[in-house]
User: Which sequence fits this backbone?
């Protein structure tokens, strides 16, 4: 039985020129493949590269805003930032990043990690965001590294 979260590399030629590195459960290969299909040139991949690198810039800026909002104990802003980055990461198929952002969105909205139950203690929500943000950033760095390898970018 085929999985819906297959590695993009399974559908590529053996030369490996277009294969996405094995990202396990970090990237939804089907979603990412849809973005790759919009590239005019498989070697250059200008369209998908611009989307992915635009996301990198957006994520870095959003993480800084999250840190600042956390320092100010601004749960509504953390809710908004989590929601914002969740949508962007889902668009390109970054599963773990999307999931981490959703948790921050939920905690910022005074809910549990699933968003199904109210959490009346703002300090607990802030602590949960404090615990979630480093994991989210680590998941982001992991997928950023893999995607930069895919685009043959060893710099920054």
Assistant:
């Amino acid at each position: 039985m085929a999985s819906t979260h297959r590695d993009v590399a399974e559908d590529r030629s053996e030369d490996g020129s277009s294969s996405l590195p094995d990202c396990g459960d970090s990237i939804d290969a089907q979603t990412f493949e849809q973005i790759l299909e919009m590239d005019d040139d498989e070697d250059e991949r200008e369209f998908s590269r611009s989307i992915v690198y635009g996301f990198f810039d957006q994520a870095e800026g959003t993480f800084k805003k999250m840190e600042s909002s956390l320092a100010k104990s601004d749960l509504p802003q953390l809710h908004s930032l989590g929601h914002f980055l969740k949508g962007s990461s889902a668009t390109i198929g970054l599963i773990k990043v999307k999931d981490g952002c959703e948790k921050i969105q939920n905690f910022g909205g005074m809910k549990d990690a699933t968003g199904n139950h109210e959490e009346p203690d703002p300090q607990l929500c802030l602590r949960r965001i404090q615990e979630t943000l480093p994991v989210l950033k680590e998941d982001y760095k992991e997928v950023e590294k893999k995607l930069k390898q895919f685009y043959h970018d060893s710099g920054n």
User: Anything to note?
Assistant: The chain has a mean pLDDT of 88. The radius of gyration is 17 Å. The CA atoms of residues 110 and 119 lie 5 Å apart. The first helix runs from residue 29 to 36.
